[in-house]
Structures are given as structure tokens and as C-alpha cells.
Amino acid sequence: MMTEVFRLRNLEQAIEQAAKDELSKYEASSQCFFNYLEQLSKDSFNRKQFQIYRDNFFFRTSSTTRSIFRVFLAAALNADYTTFCSMRENLFDELGRGNPEKRHLTLLEKSYNFHGEKVFGLPRISVQEVEQSPLICEEARYFREIQKSLYCHKYYQVVLGCSFAQEAVANHMLESFYKTLFLPYKFLYNEDFEQVSEYFLTHITGLEKNHAEKAKQAIFKACSNEHALQLVVEGISRFLNAQAVLWKGILREMIKAQSEDDFVSVFLY
Predict the structure, then answer these.
(1) Which domains does the chain have, with CATH numbers?
(2) Cα–Cα distance measured from residue 47 to residue 23, given in angstroms and rounded to the nearest whole number
(3) Which residues contact 32 (CB under 8 A, 6 or more apart)?
(4) Contact 89/82 with Cβ under 8 angstroms?
(5) What one-character DSSP code corresponds to residue 153?
């Protein structure tokens, strides 16, 4: 019995280290994109740059609810009822906990469209309409293909690895976007900035970290040997690589758009 406990503890440590290694590689690969946003947040973005970012982020995020449901379904099919219940709660969060107006994709559209219209004069767009946007980069389409293949994977551990990866990097991603693309323009708002901030504050005040921790516990429960560990790492690695590629694609297009439009300064003159 003690040997089995020791083995499982060693396996959990191996999972923790493998996840840490993959996250470190992702952070290094994505740093140029987030540094670029940080740099522009101290000066200005232009209309075209925000539109490129918005449309591609909508395209990337529009499949989130389906992805969570696929983990929920995979847990049921694998008789993993602890994770099944956890993903039920996650799905309930995503769908606004019973309030359609608080559904996360609804908050996303409200936040980005209000900000895009007020600050950059952009027409509103829905997550359905963005499918036809000419600004969607090839890397975003690649990301969606990889994401779907991982969430529909025949091996449950790959699905769980992918789910953990998406949750583990979500908090930093959203904090960065809020800090660089939205907060610098808060001076243009009165009390209506709440319409922009609600989407972000719903996620970055503990929700994403909680989801990431539950996703990690699901991995621990589903890993009993080294083969399972390898499958988990495959799910983590392939998701993070696809998302890092996406950020590089958006970065390239934002840099190309630097001279295509007037900048909206983050300073109040």
C-alpha cells in the first residue's frame, strides 16, 4: 500500500514538473506578443490593430463552450464522475450560471464591441459574424483545428491535458489583454467602463485559477502510469504550441498594420 502511494506521489510530481516545463516553453515563445502589447499600451494602438486583435480573439474564443462540453462528455464516457461534476460547474460558469446575459461569450461581445466602437470607431461584430472576417489569420484557423482535434481525441488523458493547458494560461492572458488594450483608455469613459471590465473581472478574480486547479486534479486522477503521463503532456504541449503560434500570427498582422491607420493615444492631452 505504501509503495503504491509513493508511486502515485512520484507520478504527480512528474506531472507537475512536465506541466511546468511546457508552460515555461509557452511563456518564452509567447513573450514577444505580450511585450509588444505592453509597449503599445504606453503609447497608442490604431483602429486596424485593435480590429485584428479583436476578430482573431473572437475566432479563437468562440469554441470555448463546445470545448468545455467535450471534456464534460469525455469524463462521462470514462466514468470519471468527479471530473464530470467539476466540468458541469465549469460549464455552468461559462453559461452565466443560468443568466443568458452573463454568458461569457455574451460578456465578451459586449466588452469588446463597446470598447471598439467607443475608442476606435469600429462597427460591432458577433462571434458568429467573425467567422467571415477577412482579418482572420491562418494561425487562428490552425489553432481551432488543433484545439478541436485535442478536445475530441480518443485518449482521455490528451483531452484532460489540453483542458488543463487552456485553463492554466487563461488568467495571465486575460490580465494582459485587460491591462494593455483596455485599461489605458479608461480615461475616455465615465461610469460606463463597467461595460468593458465585466468580462475580464468575471475571469481574473479567481475563476480561471480555480478552473486550472480543478483541471490539474482531473489529470492526477486519470494518470496511473507513464503512458498516461505521456498522453497528458501531449495534450498540454500541442495546445500551448498552437496558441503560441496564434499569438505570433496576430503579432505579425498587428505590426503590418502599424502604418495603415491613425493611432488612438492612451494620453489625455
Answers:
(1) 10-258 (1.20.910.10)
(2) 32
(3) 248, 251
(4) no
(5) -
